[in-house]
Amino acid sequence: MKLTILFGGASFEHEISIVSAITLKQKLSGFELSFIFCDQDHTFYLIEPSKMKAVTFSKGEHKKMAKLSLSHGAFVQKGLFSSVEHGGVFLNLIHGADGEDGTIAALLDFFSIKYIGPRIDASVFSYDKRYTKWLCDARGIKSLKYEELSLKEHNNIKTPYPVIVKPSRLGSSIGVSIVKEEGELDYALDSAFEFDSSVIVEPFINGVKEYNLAGFSADGKFYFSIVEEPHKEEFLDFEKKYMDFSRSEQVLKAEVSKELETKLRVNFEKVYKDLFEGALIRCDFFVIEGEVYLNEINPIPGSMANYLFEDFKGSIELLSNSLPHAKRARVNYDYIHSISKAKGK
Amino acid sequence: MKLTILFGGASFEHEISIVSAITLKQKLSGFELSFIFCDQDHTFYLIEPSKMKAVTFSKGEHKKMAKLSLSHGAFVQKGLFSSVEHGGVFLNLIHGADGEDGTIAALLDFFSIKYIGPRIDASVFSYDKRYTKWLCDARGIKSLKYEELSLKEHNNIKTPYPVIVKPSRLGSSIGVSIVKEEGELDYALDSAFEFDSSVIVEPFINGVKEYNLAGFSADGKFYFSIVEEPHKEEFLDFEKKYMDFSRSEQVLKAEVSKELETKLRVNFEKVYKDLFEGALIRCDFFVIEGEVYLNEINPIPGSMANYLFEDFKGSIELLSNSLPHAKRARVNYDYIHSISKAKGK
Fold first, then answer.
1. Which CATH architecture has domain A123-141+207-320?
2. Hey, are the CB atoms on A336 and B18 less than 8 Å from each other?
3. A 301-330 residues with CB below 8 A of B?
4. ipTM of the assembly?
5. Which residues of A291-330 are buried (b: 16+ CB within 10 A; e: fewer)?
6. Domain residue spans in chain B?
7. Strand ranges inside A137-241, DSSP E
8. Yes or no: is domain A2-116 CATH 3.40.50.20?
9. Which of A231, B81, B178, B226 measures 20 to 30 Å from A54, CA to CA?
């Protein structure tokens, strides 16, 4: 199949998006792949597949390649006398800002471009950790208690130590710290507020069981990945996570009971249904005293969590044949006509 | 001041957006106004101010005017040998889909265009009535109990009659019905599901006190309109509301106690803060037994609720000087450089 991977973006996760795209080039070999890069100034470039290497971007060599602009149904490469259209199905692989905050979704929807990725609403509820909590509360999904701090008011916290401090709106562990005692709080808050004006504080539970589950729905049916128990480190810092985005080897299935797997799937469906259609997402869960808690939603997981799927290529193909399309209102000017008539004009 | 009004959109409220724009042309006379029309196919046109009449659009005469495309910081009119930029501050006056669902916000943000209007997050929480309820619950704002029906499952409702049935994602009373008894329910649901796959049902309280309050924040301070008690009809149907969007005469202040006005303002601030910055919104409230309930948020009220402000032009000017701008991450390729070095490349 034909697929265009859209990556880059003006985001703190710009570089990991590049790594992710390079990994997918390998994992989706056999597909007819194209690559469109969004640079930090929001200019789009068509990248030759043979140039899909990290140095192309760090050295700025992409600037010599063809510039593209958005048009109805396609990205367009304008020539002096004619233009070339790059259409078909896209995969939004822009991690963090732009890609996961609803911006790219809106652009592609507005220009009627078909894509794999979260829609605007889904982006808002997964990008901002506060809104993920609201989603949990509304849909009966358990999540850890939290408090919100703003840059202006953050003297005391009520959560007992140890706590974890996170910017509300970033992914990939950027600006995240574990704080074991009060003396370490200020530094952690400074780091977090460097990236966002809103910060959330949650209890940090040492040794908590963590499980990741990816999946999507197509033709009204859910398709799940295997359950993964991620590496047991306190948490992945940015550099480790960065390497993590280039993962391409199938991981081992976590040893979980059938009962727990079902619980994880039920919670995944609660998150996904009527919101994430069109996206392949990864939900990261905690299990505390047998109960499943949602930790976070990755609406565009690193390298699309390819390593969790037994048939990754088949999954992408299934999903791309079941993409939602925005229903657009048609205008017939009935009201204006009837009012003009009433006025005798 | 210079201001460009963006109106139209592929929305059921396309026509009322035209009426709204024509009204603002009159209310903001003295400003240096430009008008950009988004047609139902998402093509942008620069409309000559003298052609700002309903018939221009119903007769398709806008198609003879200059086409514009989005570019960094401006809409651009491309000529054969040169192009003209239309920049400055914009006012998003696209009611309903496109304008109020986050799409236009994302487009303008992506292209670094300054605008008055709700940002992506704010749009999502006001456009979908279910998410407005979640916002209320999270921020301690009272709202009516509701139940959600989906197209697939809607046999019984639990809310006692009379009820009001609304599509989850439309404004301007489109598809809304009051249902007095079970026998009327099916027809009401059919009407609502014609516009949306999700419908909400709320108790209908005959004769409930309604108050509207508009406002915005600028330089960290709130500015409020007068409180209005809207017309006492069961509710405004689309045709009446359509006429309503052309309102330009200052209305009379509702007779409310200082105490109630303060309560309304406190609730308005709870809705607005850290979400609606950059927008002038109107909140529609119910008052039941002395308690304030949020009914709905209009993030782009009809003709910007000009008739509620004593100094409407001054308000628009204040707000346009206090617009948030998206902080954009800068990329330095540190990680790629360090990894390339480690690999010895």
1. 2-Layer Sandwich (3.30)
2. yes
3. 328-330
4. 0.93
5. ebbbbbbbbbbbbbbbbbbeebeebbbbbbeebeebebbe
6. 2-116, 123-142+206-320, 147-203
7. 147-150, 163-167, 177-179, 198-203, 209-218, 221-228
8. yes
9. A231
For each of chain B's 345 residues, which pLDDT tens digit applies? 999 999 999 998 999 999 999 999 999 999 999 999 999 999 999 999 999 999 999 999 999 999 999 999 999 998 878 899 999 999 999 999 999 999 999 999 999 999 999 999 999 999 999 999 999 999 999 999 999 998 877 668 999 999 999 999 976 678 999 999 999 999 999 999 998 889 999 999 988 999 999 999 999 999 999 999 987 555 556 566 666 677 777 777 888 999 999 999 999 999 999 999 999 999 999 999 999 999 999 999 999 999 999 999 999 999 999 999 877 778 888 878 776 676 654
Contact between B137 and A134 using a beta-carbon 8 Å cutoff: yes
pTM for this predicted structure? 0.94
- Cβ of residue B26 closer than 8 Å to a chain A Cβ: no
B242 touches chain A (CB under 8 A): yes
Tokens standing for residue A109: 């929807």
> Which residue type does B344 have?
G
CATH topology of domain A147-203: Dna Ligase; domain 1 (3.30.1490)
